[in-house]
Design brief:
heterodimer, A: mainly alpha, 1 helix, B: two-stranded antiparallel ribbon, globular
Chain lengths: 41, 649
């Protein structure tokens, strides 16, 4: 059970970090994250 | 009684001895503090100097210009009828228009080819001698910190190799300067007008570099222990401060030719020296060359260690050079990992400065050289990984991780193949008709940057994973949170890989072009997060870890051969990309300011350029062999001849 918690927590942290980083890097360049498959405006 | 007295006397002498020791210790502590303080001051000065050079919008540059202009005006009236000084009159001249009389030749030899090879050899050697003291000082510091004498010996041996190269660097530098003044006198005259006294600053720095280098090397054993060691380390820091400034000063000449600043369209000097130096490409080139030099220097000394290891006469010697080879490889690859990002920045700045220049580099005739670059970088990464995987055999603990090697190898090979895939092929009309267009259905998507960005980032992550596994091989982690630490590291790798592929595929192929460039920054950051978090998590997890025995010298000879592949590929790569950097000026000596009207004012065909790079590379490797031989010569001693009695006497 503890192992499962470790894995779930690790992936939650990693996904959050990379999502926020993507968001930060794109917005710094004036671009929305635009992940709904629509062409950028 | 007497023995009791003696005991008291002994006791009191012991106490006074202890007091003396404490006093000595206090004095020593105070001295260490003073040395620490002085080191901090030197560090602070170097950092301030570096910061002054790196800040692009520095206010005092205009003040300096004002002061220079003010002094010119003050002295002006007595020098010329127009009331301007000779210097000012010179600086107000436009760049000369070049004619046939402005070029010279040595016999029938092409001046461009001659200068090309000499400049390249000078740059190879300069990169090496500037890089070695950088990591030598760090290794020396590690020796002080850990108390392990081997670090100190290794640092000294690295310096010994670079000392022979130093005089050769100066010789090639002198030959290059004479060649340029002889073959391109008018061009060099204009460069001297623009840069003025700055070239004397370079000369002064060169004197300083030489002086500090000789003191640093020859005082190694005189300043080896205690407080004196800190003085020696300070010398090392000073040497690197001077060396790096020297590099930055010389870089300004190259970047001025590519993207001139501080002059108007006609080449009339309009700004101060600071405006001329800090062109748009100066800092990207500073960073790129600084990092690349370290990787190059590490690779060269790695080959030295490999050469010494293969020719070692004893197991102890073999073990020493095996360790030295490992350290060199570590330095080379560690510096190499961020290098593509520095290159990316340089290329982005080139595009920002002139889109035409960027397209000449990456979309015109020079674009094919980026495919050759991919082959060479792929060779470097494959060789570095191969060396690490072989090196894992030094420790039995590595068996826990060897199952991962095949997956890393597969990732490297597939990524390598994607990276070397060209976008277009040189085809005949019939071949285009058979293919149904100039783009192969597979080469079209794999030949463009999004695919290559994915490939490069995956290769870098794979290489870092090899390093991480190697570092974990001789350790048994004991921290209670080891399970969570490992899970977090795996999660970071998995999400980073998914993120790099998603960003490349989605933004590269399914949205507008603006996203392609934007998302590549996030891809780079993904790789950097893996590297930084890997170092941090491992450092925390290695606290209190049990160490497993490492058998230095047990690596296979095949693994050591990889140490020779690295400097060869690095040298070729530097020759290749140096040529691309210089060629983007096309038919300009100084881009948009001074036209090249010589017989060589064109970009040569790829075959000719390849031959020139190969001549420079092979010549440099021959020089490196000479350097290794001279460095080893100091260790060999001729036995005293034994006089054999002549039976006839």
């Amino acid at each position: 059970m503890k192992q499962l918690k470790n894995w779930v927590l690790s992936f939650v942290i990693a996904i959050a970090v990379f999502y926020l980083m993507d968001h930060a890097m794109m917005s710094m360049q004036g671009l929305p994250l635009n992940i709904d498959m629509t062409p950028s405006q | 009684m007497s023995s009791h007295k003696r005991l008291i006397t002994d006791n009191s002498s012991t106490v006074s001895g202890i007091n003396t020791l404490i006093k000595h210790a206090q004095d020593s502590k105070a001295s260490v503090m003073i040395v620490h303080r002085s080191m901090q001051i030197v560090f602070a000065m170097i950092i301030m100097l570096s910061a002054l050079m790196m800040v692009p919008e520095l206010a005092w540059s205009s003040d300096v210009t004002a002061v220079v202009e003010g002094s010119s005006i003050a002295e002006g009236s007595s020098t010329t009828a127009e009331g301007s000084t000779t210097d000012e009159a010179l600086q107000n001249q436009p760049a000369p228009t070049m004619g046939p009389r402005d070029y010279r030749q040595i016999g029938s030899m092409s001046s461009r080819s001659f200068v090309w090879v000499i400049a390249q050899l000078h740059l190879f050697l300069a990169a090496f001698v500037l890089a070695v003291p950088l990591f030598v000082t760090v290794i020396e510091w590690l020796g002080v910190k850990t108390g392990d004498q081997r670090y100190d010996d290794m640092a000294h041996e690295f310096m010994k190799v670079s000392m022979t190269a130093y005089s050769l660097t100066a010789l090639f530098g002198g030959t290059l300067a004479f060649s340029l003044f002889l073959l391109y006198p008018t061009f060099m005259g204009y460069m001297m007008e623009v840069f003025g006294n700055q070239v004397m600053v370079y000369a002064l720095l060169f004197f300083l570099e030489s002086g500090v280098l000789y003191i640093y090397y020859y005082s190694w054993y005189a300043l080896r222990y205690g407080n004196k060691k800190y003085i020696h380390l300070t010398l090392g820091v000073l040497l690197n401060g001077v060396g790096t400034t020297l590099l930055f000063v010389a870089n300004a000449w190259a970047t001025f030719m590519m993207a001139p600043s501080g002059v108007d369209d006609a080449g009339v000097v309009t700004g101060g020296i600071w405006d001329i130096m800090r062109g748009p490409l100066w800092n990207p080139l500073n960073l790129h060359r600084f990092v690349a030099n370290i990787a190059f220097g590490g690779a060269i000394v790695g080959a030295y260690a490999g050469y010494k290891m293969l020719s070692a006469q004893s197991m102890a010697q073999r073990a020493h050079y095996d360790w030295m080879g490992y350290t060199s490889n570590f330095i080379a690859v560690l510096a190499f990992l961020p290098l593509p990002f520095a290159g990316y920045w340089l290329m982005a700045e080139i595009y920002a400065y002139s889109q035409q220049m960027g397209i000449t580099a990456m979309g015109g005739i020079l674009a094919w050289l980026f495919i050759v670059q991919a082959v060479l970088i792929g060779t470097i990464l494959l060789a570095a990984n191969y060396y690490l995987w072989n090196g894992m055999s030094r420790c039995e603990g590595s068996q826990r991780y060897t199952w991962l090697i095949k997956y890393i190898a597969a990732t490297l090979v597939v990524s390598f193949l994607i990276w070397v895939t060209p976008h277009t092929l040189i085809l005949s009309a019939q071949e285009i008709a058979t293919l149904g267009g100039s783009h192969h259905p597979l080469l079209g998507p794999l030949g463009i940057m999004p695919a290559k960005n994915i490939a490069v980032n995956l290769m870098l992550m794979g290489t870092f994973l090899s390093f991480q596994l190697y570092r974990r091989s001789d350790k048994v982690i004991t921290v209670p949170w080891a399970g969570f630490g490992n899970a977090l590291m795996v999660a970071i790798y998995v999400i980073a890989i998914a993120n790099v592929i998603f960003l490349g595929v989605y933004y590269g192929y399914f949205t507008n072009t603006v996203y392609k460039v934007g998302s590549s920054v996030a891809q780079v950051m993904s790789t950097l997060i893996v590297i930084v978090s890997g170092v941090v998590i491992d450092t925390m997890m290695f606290k209190g870890a049990k160490s497993l025995p490492v058998k230095w010298g047990q690596i296979s000879n095949r693994g050591v051969y990889a140490l020779f592949a690295l400097p060869i590929a690095f040298t070729w790569l530097m020759a290749l990309m140096g040529y691309v950097r210089s060629s983007v000026r096309t038919h300009w000596h100084i881009y948009t300011v001074m036209k090249d009207n010589s017989v060589d004012n064109f970009i040569p065909n790829i075959g000719h350029a390849g031959n020139m790079m190969t001549v420079a590379t092979i010549s440099f490797l021959a020089i490196v062999l000479f350097i290794f031989w001279v460095a080893s010569l100091g260790d060999s001693k001729q036995p005293k001849p034994v006089k054999i009695a002549n039976p006839a006497e």
